[in-house]
Amino acid sequence: MKSHPLDFFEPFTSELPADKELVNERRQVRNACFSYVEPKTPANPSLIHASPEMMQLLGISNLHDEKRFSDIFSGAVTPEGSKPYAMCYGGHQFGNWAGQLGDGRAINLGKVEGVGGPWTLQLKGAGETPYSRNADGLAVLRSSVREYLCSEAMHHLGVPTTRALSLMLSGDSVLRDILYNGNPAYEKGAIVCRVAPSFIRFGNFEILAAQKDITTLRALVDYTIRHHFSHLVAPNKAAYLAFFKEVSLRSMEMVVHWQRVGFVHGVMNTDNMSILGLTIDYGPYGWLEGYDPEWTPNTTDSAHKRYRYGTQPELVLWNLVQLANALYPLIEAVEPLQDILDEYRKQVGVAQLDMMRSKLGLFEAKPEDEELVTTLETALQATETDMTLFYRTLSQFDPDSPEMGIALVGEAFYSPGEVKGAVADTWNSWFALYAQRLRKELATKEKRTEHMNAVNPKYVLRNYMAQMAIDAAEEGDYDVMKELFTMLKKPYDEQPSFQKWFAKRPEWARNKVGCSMLSCSS
Ligand code: AMP
Ligand code: MG
Q1: Which domain holds residue 401?
Q2: How far away, in angstroms, is 271 Cα from ligand 2 center?
Q3: Are residues 270 and 321 located together in one domain of the fold?
Q4: Which of 52, 80, 217, 361 has the fewest CB atoms within 10 Å, counting from its CB?
Q5: Packed helices 141-157 and 479-487: angle between N→C axes, nearest 10 degrees
Q6: Distance CA 230, CA 12 (A)
Q7: What's the pLDDT tens digit per position in 261-288?
Q8: Strands, DSSP E only, in 274-351?
Q9: Model pTM score
Q10: Tally of domains in the chain
Q11: Alpha helices in 366-520 (DSSP H)
Q12: Distance between CA atoms of 477 and 450, rounded to whole angstroms?
């Protein structure tokens, strides 16, 4: 490991108020942004996998001292210079104010200098903190594999996200009731070292506003601007508004990327909204297979489907309203905050249409594009159609032969037998419309194909794939996980050796726990 020990520092703890209490007991914390806490000593830590890309960014050149690496990134040993801490935040969960939440099972080691700036390292599943409420502060292998694989996959897809350095077994057993139906079982404990410029969430601001602790709220906003929006300079009302505007833009950018690749977060509570517009907290997330705006993988949300695919952009706005409320005491004017929210509402539709143009290989904007997109959405739902396969195969579409469209994307249909009569008519009309539209484009077919294949991934972490990696990992076999990790580094490349993963979800996975049904139990 580079010049070990890694040089840890942490402006978050040196510049913001700490919880005065030092015992590691659950409590309501006030007038503070965090609590100091030591990770739990794991029974028998062992490294499963480390991300070479993250190691490089952090300046960890190799794993020659694997024991030391495992000790640090499992929480067994606190590295020199690190004063581990848990953040205090609150949040709106499923539309309701939930009060104090906080890092209940994430412990931050601090920052290290790396490529692209200082990175905060955080151990998820490293034990209890004052914010653990009625839970154990631990994470299981199942959910840790999902977080580890998906955060790196999202990065390579070009989606803003927190990253992951390592996946570790803790050697402890952890009791979980996966479906909350009275069937608890012991699972292997695991720890992911997550990495991001900052893990500050909307909820960090909300808790202070809820406590009417305006002094600490101002300190946190000033801190965030100073370290993460430093171009905004002086802390004053104008800068606070500019800050809010930028958060709204970054969040918009993030959610439009989600829509582009078919990612459904599953739990878009305000405590899971990064102030940097990063995808954060990979829990019961999932990937659209059959295109369905109504789909959510989260069984905890199955009644209302608040966080279904189709509503994600709107839910970001709802969350931004909560952030606006939290920032209001510093701005003391409703109108400029409302203007920013209105702007989001206007722009998110524009951004989505632009994103859809790129998925369809349209370089120019034409008035008829909106109809082209709406009719496509109807066609995609006429019979179950795999989103990823559809867009990827569409890049070979020939506008001179629209009648070949159905055959071209044929692999994407889950029930090919249904593609007849009205369904076939719907598709054929759409292909005709698309062909007409493409004729107005100047770009060559080659250029269009190249462009489409750079925004429509060939490989995504389908739910059943993650589950296969988990099933093998539970048996101590990490080959599937490693294969997926490697493949997902190049999601837009053809990668013929991984062709078997360019396929529809197999039928056995349709209603299987972990594949189509996920809960928050992790
Ligand atoms: P999540 O749904 O994972 O975003 O978590 C919501 C809140 O519950 C956060 O405050 C988490 O820190 C906390 N939490 C989730 N799982 C655990 C756990 N196993 N132990 C302690 N706190 C947890
Ligand atoms: Mg969370």
Answers
A1: 365-440
A2: 6
A3: yes
A4: 80
A5: 20
A6: 15
A7: 999 999 999 999 999 999 999 999 999 9
A8: 286-287
A9: 0.97
A10: 4
A11: 369-382, 387-394, 405-408, 421-438, 445-453, 463-474, 479-487
A12: 37
